[in-house]
Specification:
alpha+beta; globular; 185 residues
Length: 185
């Protein structure tokens, strides 16, 4: 009886794996799937996936920018992740032409006005209206990062906006080449 129960449980587990695998990720061999994977890479700050799904060297460029922040780099990465966690993209249509594709995308992001208000309120409550008492850029960054992150977390999403993304096929892989994303923050 125990043996039959174990076999039944193993079969059910295997079946669940196949069901979830079928419902899971998109086909990244399509422009839409690669676009979604690229956006997920940005949101997760996944360097390998960024290099796979975005043209150029975005991961190394971001890492270089963060490295210039010195001890504030980790805080800046946290702010980056908090910011991009608020980004939602929905592909509305895809037009392929050879090695390029144009995607019409609906983007939902932070309410820009509310973000600016929240940022100002957080800076005021933290006493950062007078920057003359900050001795270095690094100190300023250390004080600002939590304030920016707090403002991001308190800001609701804005109205969806439509924009375009251009995808290119490089060495058999679709990549985001241009994404007209105006964060406007």
């Amino acid at each position: 009886m125990k043996r039959a129960k174990r076999i039944l449980m193993a079969a059910m587990a295997a079946m669940l794996v196949f069901v979830f695998a079928g419902c899971g990720g998109q086909d990244t061999n399509t422009p839409e799937g690669a676009f979604n994977a690229g956006i997920a890479a940005l949101k997760d700050f996944d360097s390998n996936a960024m290099d796979k799904y975005l043209t150029g060297n975005p991961a190394s460029e971001l890492n270089d920018a963060f490295a210039q922040l010195g001890t504030s780099a980790n805080a800046a990465k946290d702010v980056y992740k908090a910011l991009y966690s608020k980004l939602n993209c929905k592909v509305l249509s895809v037009e392929e032409e050879g090695d390029t594709a144009t995607l019409q995308v609906e983007v939902t992001f932070l309410d820009k006005t509310q973000f600016q208000n929240n940022l100002m309120a957080a800076a005021l409550s933290a006493g950062l209206t007078n920057m003359s008492n900050v001795s270095s850029q690094e100190e300023l960054m250390e004080k600002m990062m939590p304030i920016i992150k707090e403002a991001i977390e308190k800001t609701p999403k804005g109205e969806p906006q439509q924009t375009e993304a251009t995808m290119v096929l490089e060495e058999g892989q679709w990549k985001i080449d241009d994404f007209d994303l105006d964060l406007g923050l």
